[in-house]
Design goal:
Layout lengths: L3 H9 L12 E2 L3 E6 L11 E7 L3 H17 L3 E4 L12 H11 L3 E17 L4 E8 L6 E8 L4 E16 L5 E14 L7 H17 L6
Parallel strand pairs: 3-4, 3-5
Antiparallel strand pairs: 1-9, 2-9, 5-8, 6-7, 8-9
């Protein structure tokens, strides 16, 4: 089979996404429907190949796994593409087409980064100090030694990103549904990864899929 839409996305989306999911403290994403479920869609779907197209293989794997786990919990057979490949596997359309054929998928769920903005600011750390003093020869006069310990400023990066997720029918080979999910969060440079950004994105995607009738609980 030839999923032309996957081929187009695979060519363009991998240039973005390296900054995605650096670490965050965020509320759940805001979801908007960019393409309502098509009247001709053969939903609900029962076997779905889940694909995330980011430049980071780990980011792809984290999001695909979280989305697949939620779909599987509903009784849907969902397979993350990264479970069938490694970092050396070519990220090209034919790779995903072969996966669709192998698992007998009736739909592909494709997520990619479409927009990202960031602003950095420095936040001064609270200084700590120790003070020692002792009397001198003179009455009521003391010698004082003050030592301050000041940490480097914390770098806060305010992110705004938009993920586009679409469902593609294997039978029709066309997108039948699409959403945008917008997240705003502050990433503190030295705090490292906050995995909750993946779980929140996965919750938003799967909840909307269920609400719009792409999948149903079994």
């Amino acid at each position: 089979m030839n999923l032309n839409v996957v081929e187009r996305r695979a060519r363009s989306a991998l240039v973005a996404g390296s900054i995605l999911f650096l670490g965050a403290c965020a509320a759940g994403p805001q979801v908007t429907v960019s393409q309502p479920l098509s009247d001709s869609a053969d939903a609900p779907y029962e076997k779905i190949l889940v694909i995330a197209l980011f430049s980071s293989f780990d980011s792809r794997r984290y999001l695909e796994t979280e989305v697949s786990d939620r779909l599987n919990a509903l009784g849907v057979s969902a397979v993350p593409s990264t479970s069938m490949m490694d970092t050396r596997t070519p990220v090209i359309a034919q790779t995903f087409i072969d996966m669709v054929d192998e698992i007998g998928a009736d739909a592909v769920l494709l997520t990619q980064l479409t927009s990202h903005g960031a602003e950095a600011s420095a936040e001064s750390a609270r200084p700590e100090a120790t003070m020692n003093y002792w009397p001198t020869y003179y009455y009521n006069v003391f010698e004082v030694q003050l030592t301050e310990y000041v940490e480097p400023p914390r770098i806060n990066i305010e992110h705004s990103l938009v993920l586009a997720t679409e469902a593609i029918s294997v039978e029709s080979r066309d997108p039948v549904w699409a959403i945008d999910s917008t997240s705003k969060f502050v990433h503190v440079e030295e705090d490292g990864l906050d995995y909750s950004i993946y779980t929140k994105e996965a919750d938003a995607i799967v909840n909307r899929m269920t609400r719009d009738g792409l999948v149903k609980k079994q």
